[in-house]
Every structure is written in C-alpha cells, then in structure tokens.
C-alpha cells in the first residue's frame, strides 16, 4: 500500500531558498526529487516549504501549531526545523534571541512537532563567510561564526536528548564556505544549495 507522507520544512530564508535563481533552494530540489520518484511506485511524499525570510524561533512558535494542524497527513509526517541564523544576529547590541531562549524555543517547537510527527530533523546553522563574520551589515545586524558553534551545539544537544535527527549542513560547508556562500556571505549560492540537497536526499529516500 502506498502511503502519503508529508514533509514540513520550517525555517528562515535558507529554508525558503533565497538567492537561488536556478534551483529555488535545497527544499525545492528535494520537492522535485520526491515528485519524480513518485512515479516509481513508491510512497508519495509531499514536501511543504514553510520557510520565511528573516524569521526567528519567536516567529516560528507563533505559527507552528496552526501550520502543523493545516498540513497533516494521517499516514505520517516528517518535520524539519531550521533556525538560528537570525536568532543569533546581534542588533543594537543584543541578540535577537539569546542562546537560553533559543534552547527553550526549539524545545517547545519539538513538542509541537511531536504531536504530529515521529521523525523530527533539526537543521544546523551554516557558517558565515570571512567577510561578514563579526561585521555589521547595512541592515544593522552582526553575526559571528563563534555564535554559530554555540547555537549548533544547542541543536545537537536537543537532538541527542530527544532522539531526534541532526542534519549537519555546517560540516558540509565549513571547509568550502567561501565558494558555497553567495555574495552576501550568509545565504548559500546555487552550488551551496546543491550540496545541501545532496546531503538531504538520502533522508528523503528513507521514506520513498
């Protein structure tokens, strides 16, 4: 019997796929992949890109219960949670969402997800390119790679404590970040999004 499984991707602009005029980002590559595989007679996986540019975990918690309830397959759901690049940004001297609050917010998001999904994936934050590490953007935000490590460790710990999966895009990027990030030093370019999709396709394959 074919099952219909929903994959829900919560996140910020990197989930949404900003700056990728070619493929539309990693989630859209996965979406096309799942659609192509459907004709092979496997399960049907419907992927929803629920990324919103600039969003922090504060915004996630406001909408997550509604989004989950609105897109829920009786036959199974997979939830992906990809936050931190905005949470850790410093604006006017303070982080948008400090580490302790980030930890609580992710834990709460996981509790929401657990009501609908057996499989939950926490997505690592990507490294920033050298030229933006610790440099204030025109929009007045400052991000550091040191903070990326702190917030990723929080995600890793929550994944370990709750038997969740952790997708380590950070490790896939860190050596080659200068060629995988776009000119803004924060978002991946087409090549970077391609690497993310390659890393994530084996995850999607498990459900096909």
TrEMBL record:
Transmembrane residue ranges: none
Source organism, top-level taxon: Bacteria
Residue span, SGNH hydrolase-type esterase domain: 9-194
Gene3D superfamilies, alphabetized: SGNH hydrolase (3.40.50.1110)
Name this protein carries in UniProt: GDSL-type esterase/lipase family protein
């Amino acid at each position: 019997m074919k099952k219909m499984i929903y994959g829900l991707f919560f996140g910020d602009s990197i989930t949404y796929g900003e700056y990728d005029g070619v493929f539309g980002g990693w989630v859209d590559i996965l979406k096309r992949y799942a659609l192509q595989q459907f004709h092979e007679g496997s399960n049907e996986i419907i992927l929803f890109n629920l990324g919103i540019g600039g969003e922090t975990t504060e915004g996630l918690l406001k909408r997550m219960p509604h989004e989950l309830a609105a897109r829920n397959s009786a036959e199974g759901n997979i939830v992906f949670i990809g936050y931190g690049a905005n949470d850790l940004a410093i604006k006017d001297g303070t982080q948008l969402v400090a580490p302790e609050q980030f930890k609580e917010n992710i834990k709460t998001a996981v509790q929401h997800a657990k009501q609908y999904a057996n499989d939950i994936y926490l997505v690592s934050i990507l490294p920033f390119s050298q030229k933006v590490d610790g440099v204030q953007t025109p929009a007045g935000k400052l991000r550091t790679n040191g903070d990326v490590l702190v917030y990723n460790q929080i995600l890793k710990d929550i994944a370990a404590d709750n038997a969740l999966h952790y997708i380590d895009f950070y490790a896939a990027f860190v050596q080659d970040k200068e060629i995988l990030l776009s000119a803004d030093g924060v978002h991946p370019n087409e090549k970077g999004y391609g690497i993310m999709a390659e890393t994530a396709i084996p995850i999607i394959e498990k459900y096909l």
